[in-house]
Amino acid sequence: MVPAAPFDFAGQHFQMLAENALFWPRHGALIVADLHLEKASWYAARGQPLPPYDSHDTLDRLATLAARTGARAIWCLGDSFHDRDAAARIVPAVADRLARQARSAALVWIAGNHDGLSAGAWGGTVADELLVDGIAFRHQAERGEVRPEISGHFHPKLCSHIRGRRVARACFVGDARRLILPAFGSFAGGLAADDPAIAASFDGSYRAMLVAGGRRLDFPCPGRAAGDATARPAAAAS
């Protein structure tokens, strides 16, 4: 079992999981973003055949985490499916797994820019956003939001070069008021944690965060104040 890292945000106690998810013990809620189910079948429909196992792998990992944490609820923060037509392509085995997951934990599907609100067809409830204990949960961060906010959308990754090779690992990014989750989907790409598109969601500097051995590792990101042309890749905190 991979230990979780304690994570305090907006006066609440969370657990940051190495498996790219967040757990909120107070509500028994497992929080994930960007599952992008049926992404491989989307590519296959466009002449790029890929192994059709991404949805099964993503749901395997989701079920394992739900069982390990004892989650009573699963909140999916948007883009749970790769596109709005995924429901027409989903195979019965995947549809059945979604229905069974909805029976074992209260599923909340937040609408994303890819999937709309179709995910509720397999159980659970759908919403544009969620407000719990003063924290706003939505798919994409809103610059004008003054409340604490947790979102997804950007698929942040911490990128570095080791022995001449570029290495990228999914990460969380956030500051005291805003947290962006990594993509949970098995076949999801990513954006560098210090990319200007992510930095634009923050008022100043922020952190890229990884979990290793039950500890949270923080890496500073300069934010918009550094200027896009001179911003440096995220480096390890001292």
Characterise the protein shown here.
Helix 2 packs parallel to helix 4. The strands form 3 sheets. The chain has a 7-stranded mixed β-sheet, covered by helices on one side. A 7-stranded mixed β-sheet has the order 8-9-10-14-13-16-17, with no helix packed on it. The two termini are 28 Å apart. The protein contains 5 helices and 17 strands. The chain is of the alpha/beta class and 238 residues long. It is globular, with a radius of gyration of 17 Å.
Helix content: 10-25%
Mean pLDDT: 83
Low-confidence stretches: 226-238
* Total DSSP helices: 5
Globally, the shape reads globular
Strand content: 25-35%
Oligomer: single chain
Task: Return the structural class.
Answer: alpha/beta
The span between the termini is 28 Å
Major β-sheet strand ordering: 1-2-3-4-5-6-7
- Helix-strand topology string: EEEEHHEHHEEEEEEEEEEHEE
Radius of gyration, Cα only, in angstroms?
17 Å
| Total strands | 17
State the major sheet.
Answer: 7 strands, mixed
Primary descriptors:
single chain, 238 residues, alpha/beta, seven-stranded mixed beta sheet, 5 helices, 17 strands, disordered C terminus
Write the layout of secondary structure elements.
Layout: E1 5-9, E2 12-17, E3 21-24, E4 29-32, H1 39-44, H2 54-69, E5 73-76, H3 86-89, H4 92-104, E6 106-110, E7 125-127, E8 130-132, E9 135-137, E10 149-151, E11 156-162, E12 165-170, E13 172-174, E14 178-180, E15 191-192, H5 196-199, E16 206-212, E17 215-221
